[in-house]
Amino acid sequence: MKMRFFVCFVSVIILWMAAGEGNVSAQNYLTLTALENSWVGIHNEMNNPDIHYRINGGPWLEITEDMPVFVEKNCRISFRGNNPGGFSHSVNNYTSIVISGNMNASGNIMSLVDNQGQSLVIPSGYCFTHLFENSTGLITPPELNPVVLMRGCYSLMFAGCSRMTRSPRLTVQNLAAECYESMFLGCTSLTRIEVRFSQWATFYDPMYGVDFYATLSWVNGVGKSGVFVCPRGLPALFGEDFIPEGWQIQYR
After folding, report:
1. What does residue 126 show for φ and ψ, rounded to 5 degrees?
2. pTM for this model (two decimals)
3. Distance of CA 1 to CAs 39, 41, 54, 67, Å?
4. DSSP label at 28?
5. Interval 130-180: pLDDT, tens
6. Which residues contact residue 120 at a Cβ distance below 8 angstroms, ignoring those fewer than 6 apart?
7. Is the dihedral of CA 182, 184, 187, 190 positive or negative?
8. What is the four-CA torsion angle of 78, 223, 160, 230, rounded to 10 degrees?
């Protein structure tokens, strides 16, 4: 397997600029910061999106499944892609970012879709399904900026991220079918979730002929105690589809 090694130099940040970026801020790009020497790669499951990376503001390079990237401690790897039809497409056709080593995420996941992290509308169903699945080294998640969700867009997004201690702020009030399904499945260290929606939305599934919650199994396997931050109007229901059992409610 080919490996790429990069060493962080301050001069790299100053001298290299990607062509055609214009005034796009570095904060617009989905970024991982290494808390220790780490490796980052991708896993494609019947999917092959356009995706490029750069180290500390250097040149944009293509990342492929057979070429993981070494990221030295305190260095940053950012991502962008031109995928207007969606980054992933179903629970069986998706691409995951694979992390080996402890890293914090920041920036905007929409840079994987529009190359610049400026869009606020997720373009397709299941767009970010499985995105960080089983990345046990992910400590802090990125914020989720889109204001319009699509079916299954965040399903299984952080499943198996066992060191992540808090959720991103879930600020969208109007949910979509399956949008948060199994989102935090197996996040055993998760102790804080913050939401803005004020009802547990359900959607009819014609395949099964029943209604399912948009939050189906979303907190199955999270920490046994924690804080759930929500509006006062949200019904205080507990269980793997709702507020985790044993957690306290904090109204905002």
Report:
1. 60, 25
2. 0.91
3. 13, 12, 20, 7
4. G
5. 999 999 999 999 999 999 999 999 999 999 999 999 999 999 999 999 999
6. 110, 145, 146, 147, 148
7. negative
8. -60
